[in-house]
Write a structure and sequence with these properties.
The complex is a heterodimer of chains A (389) and B (394). Chain A is α/β, with parallel strands linked by helices. Chain A contains 14 helices and 12 strands. Chain B has a domain of 243 residues. In chain B, helix 2 runs parallel beside helix 5, helix 6 packs across helix 16 and helix 12 packs across helix 14. Classes of the chains: A alpha/beta (389), B mainly alpha (394).
Chain lengths: 389, 394
């Protein structure tokens, strides 16, 4: 009678080890990492998309028989509020079983909570928040970021258009933090690249009528109108530009990128130029792999704009843990030492502030009702021409 | 505490140790609260919530629990002191748990803010749906003064309250002239206005918010881990103690206020304005008093909270946050300071403890609040009517 349960247990163990391929899998230590993003509230779609992508990276790693550890992702909700962000960051950082974190979509939350990670000496890789000060505001060894700051797209965009032969600009931007920061870095970079800013117009993000601003712009007659703001505002500005007969080329930023922009404008969108901080997902080095894996995992929600970054940040972190073990101090040092590391969003190269400086900014132009990467467009090959050239 | 009703006094057990069930009850509450902070897994939190719900439902029916309540009511002062001791004990127990202390301090600062709302809502009947805005004014005052002026921290806390009270005066005329839904709308509008104003105003940090430096209160470095009794402490101990001191101080102040003729005047204004006016109670004076005092308290709580979080941004002071403050007051029982304690646990700590169900946690928390209001429409601990003649006996 006594043999039976023991036998059953043995048989079970043998079966399990057969199933898992190797018995070493038993000895794998569990390592926890935290994901922080807005899982509830107005922009929860982005947070959930990021969470799914990070979870996907963890699942793929756990399925890998060569992985040294079994990983567990603890997702936390910051509600896009700084005070809640500080709270969940404290929760993650003071939990000694959690080795590192993949935090923040919202810049305001990130700015508030980077101090917590520094205080508790917890390594982290920001997956989405774009404000430059998150990495450059302090000298924190713990803080790294795979997503770009909004500086780069302004540098790249203005430089490129100057090279195309444009000389004069006028800037319209909304007065939210996003629009103001966009304008700030645009205005800083334009003169260095050889362009001239004739005038600047700050407008409310829900302003309807731009006749006053556009009439003045028509007088100034710039080659290009730079626009720092989001899609709905851009649509109104372009429609009214056409009515007033302004012929300037339109230069947008990441805020107008997306299908909604083209749908609202129809044919008027043709030839609009913008910069966006990611090449088309299909063109990313591991883009196809990511798209397939995400589809296979069967998530209900899309991965949204920053999902690939969340995936890349998580994979990078897991690689580092595999390499140096689940020790916060070692992970901090090894993360900062990331140079030329392959990821699905391209090579990751951290500077001395942990900012990924691999330029991912891609130029897009609207061609026949679609956003087309500049290099593949008829505009680059010379078949079509941007306005005012 | 409300005055002790006659009928309850007579039930006080005349045995040798009438306070014993009360002490036991308090111990049970403290242990539950402590366990709640420690609980991490789903089932631990679930079991604790179930125990708390069962105790709450059974309290009026089980003699032992009921006598605990009676004992509390019979010796309010003794048990207030014991509750303070229990809170200190919990803080000592959690001395190294950063998150538990942060949550405890957050809860305490919100209790203090809700005490301000209680003065307006519960005592005088002045509605205020802009609680988060006044809390926020306190936060921003602290941020601005800490960043740009060399003032002692204690003064910054007081000025946080003063600014909230002063800016609140803008609302005096509409609040005095409107009633019911209209008064609610006026304060709602103010709350929305405050947030938009902070977002467009670069001087105050704009939508991105501002950071606060580390502060020192009378030589006590708040952001450093203290070295008391040769033990390791989390630096959040400082804030938990600060919050406890604030809540305890306000508790004494407001209990005395409630029992005084001022509290009586406020009650009359709330219950029947016509009657109050007929008896020569100045409606305007007492409404202004309650509104300004309440805003002051919210401002002070906000200033302390901002120093702890070390960062303020407009997105922390939305309409939703104002509603959270109101729901703490309503859930606890309008006008009863003790009610704030269980309410703040449910409104602020439960959602944090439910992080493991991620995006569904607010759903569950919403259901919980609805269930409580269905079964206890007057809140968890409704305020008792005052009765005169028994006060001296207590």
């Amino acid at each position: 009678m006594r043999i039976r349960p023991a036998f059953r247990r043995l048989a079970g163990a043998v079966l399990c080890s057969l199933l898992l391929g190797q018995s070493a899998a038993f000895a794998r230590e569990t390592v926890k990492i935290a994901f922080i993003g807005p899982l509830t509230g107005g922009i929860s779609a982005h947070g959930i998309g990021g969470r799914n992508s990070a979870e996907l990276a963890v699942q793929l790693r756990n399925a890998d028989p060569n992985a040294k550890y079994t990983y567990e992702l603890e997702a936390m909700d910051d509600e896009c509020k700084p005070n809640v962000g500080v709270q969940v960051a404290t929760k993650a950082a003071s939990d000694k079983s959690i080795v590192a974190a993949i935090p923040f979509y919202c810049s305001a939350v990130a700015i508030a909570a980077v101090d917590v990670f520094h205080k508790f000496r917890m390594p982290m890789v920001v997956w989405a928040a774009v404000l430059p000060e998150i990495t450059y505001g302090n000298d924190y060894q713990e803080v790294n970021r795979v997503s770009s700051t909004l500086i780069n797209q302004n540098k790249v965009g203005s430089k490129f258009l100057v090279e195309q032969g444009y000389k004069t600009w006028v800037s319209i931007h909304d007065t939210t933090d996003y629009g103001k920061s966009m304008h700030k870095y645009f205005a800083e970079n334009l003169p260095a690249n050889g362009g001239k800013l004739l005038a600047e117009f700050g407008v409310g993000s829900d302003q309807q009528d731009f006749t006053a601003e556009l009439t003045r712009i028509k007088e100034l007659n710039p080659d290009v109108i730079y626009f720092g703001g989001l899609t709905p505002l851009a649509v109104r500005v372009i429609t009214q530009m056409d009515k007033l007969g302004i012929k300037a080329q339109f230069q947008g930023t990441s805020g107008i990128f997306g299908d909604a922009f083209i749908k609202s404008l129809g044919a008027e969108a043709e030839g609009v130029f913008t910069t966006y901080d990611m090449p088309p997902v299909e063109q990313l080095p591991g883009g196809k792999f990511f798209l397939d894996a995400y589809a296979k995992a069967g998530y209900k929600e899309g991965f949204e704009a920053y999902g690939p970054y969340a995936f890349a940040a998580t994979s990078l972190l897991l690689d580092v843990i595999e390499q140096v073990g689940p020790d916060r101090k070692k992970v901090i040092a090894a993360l900062r030492d990331t140079h030329g590391k392959d990821s699905i969003v391209g090579k990751i190269e951290f500077d001395d502030h942990g900012q990924n400086i691999t330029p991912m900014t891609t130029m897009y132009v609207v061609q026949d009702g679609k956003w087309v990467a500049w290099g593949e467009s008829d505009y680059a090959s010379g078949k079509r021409k941007l306005k005012n050239l | 505490m409300a005055a002790v009703p006659n009928d309850l006094l007579t039930v006080v057990p005349r045995g040798a140790r009438p306070w014993l069930p009360g002490v036991l009850g308090l111990a049970v509450v403290a242990v539950l609260l402590g366990a709640f902070f420690y609980a991490e897994s789903e089932w631990e939190v679930g079991v604790l919530l179930a125990i708390a719900a069962a105790l709450g439902l059974a309290a009026p029916r089980v003699p032992l629990l009921a006598s605990a309540e009676t004992a509390w009511r019979a010796r309010p002062r003794l048990f207030a002191w014991l509750a303070l001791l229990a809170a200190l004990g919990l803080i000592g127990l959690f001395r190294e748990e950063h998150l538990a202390l942060l949550m405890l301090a957050t809860a305490l600062f919100h209790i203090a803010a809700c005490m301000g709302l209680n003065v307006q809502f519960g005592y005088c009947g002045v509605v205020n749906f802009a609680g988060a805005a006044f809390f926020g004014i306190g936060c921003y005052t602290a941020a601005m003064l800490a960043g740009h002026a060399a003032l002692p921290t204690a003064l910054i806390f007081v000025l946080g309250g003063a600014c909230a009270a002063l800016i609140g005066c803008v609302l005096l005329v509409p609040v005095l002239r409107t009633r019911g839904h209209y008064a609610a709308l006026v304060t709602l509008a103010f709350g929305v206005l405050f947030r938009s104003f902070m977002e467009v105003n670069d001087t105050f940090g704009g939508p991105q918010g501002v950071k606060l430096p580390d502060m020192t209160l009378f030589g006590w470095a708040l952001a450093m881990p203290p070295e008391w009794f040769g033990l390791d402490w989390s630096f959040y101990v400082n804030y938990a103690l600060l919050g406890l001191a604030l809540v305890a101080g306000l508790f004494v102040l407001l209990s005395r206020l409630e029992r005084s003729w001022i509290g009586l005047a406020l009650d009359v204004v709330r219950l029947d304005e016509t009657a109050a006016a007929t008896f020569g109670v100045q409606l305007t004076r007492w409404k202004i008093f309650a509104f300004v005092l309440g805003n002051f308290l919210m401002g002070v709580a906000g200033a302390m909270y901002a120093v702890m979080i070390a960062f303020v941004a407009p997105s922390s002071f939305t309409l939703g946050d104002s509603l959270i403050l109101v729901s703490i007051v309503v859930l606890g029982g309008v006008g009863n300071q003790w009610g704030l304690l269980p309410a703040v646990v449910i409104v602020m700590l439960v959602p944090e403890k439910l992080q493991f169900i991620q995006e569904y946690r607010f759903l569950l928390y919403g259901l919980l609040v609805i269930a409580i209001l269905l079964f206890k429409p007057d809140g968890l601990l409704p305020r008792r009517l005052r009765r005169y003649g028994t006060e001296e006996a207590a």
